[in-house]
Amino acid sequence: MPFRYPIAAICFLFLIMGNTPVFSQCPPPDPLVFGDASCTPKSFTLNAIDSPDTYNWYNVPTGGLPIYQGDFFTTPIINTTTTYYVTSFDSGNNCESTRVPVQAIILPDSGNPTVY
Fold this sequence. Notes:
It is a single chain. The chain has strands at residues 12-17, 20-25, 32-34, 36-38, 45-49, 54-58, 68-69, 72-74, 82-90, 95-96, 100-106. It is mostly beta strands. It has a domain at 29-106: Immunoglobulin-like, CATH 2.60.40.10. The strands form three sheets. Strands 4, 6, 7, 9, 10 and 11 form a six-stranded mixed β-sheet that branches. Strands 3-5-8 form a three-stranded antiparallel β-sheet, with no helix packed on it. Strands 1-2 form a two-stranded antiparallel sheet. A hairpin with a 2-residue loop joins strand 1 (12-17) and strand 2. The radius of gyration is 20 Å and the shape is elongated.
């Protein structure tokens, strides 16, 4: 009779590879993200680091499908501040970190400077 384990309830999976135990953290740690800012509408390059896993990029805080997969995400040209969300995705264990917000910020126009 096979053994059954409630995998969904286990935070750390324990795997045996040869004689070496291997621990895999599930979900993986949240990525470290970097946004960007501009005074004019443009396409932004946002990036995530600090994880050996794949990064999934979303345009919604929950639900939906990834709009991109990779370290760097290039936005379409935007003219208002927009929030994107990124996760670390461990494909080997099929688990994903929480979504971390990252912003592409359009700064307000300060008008024409006055030179004295």
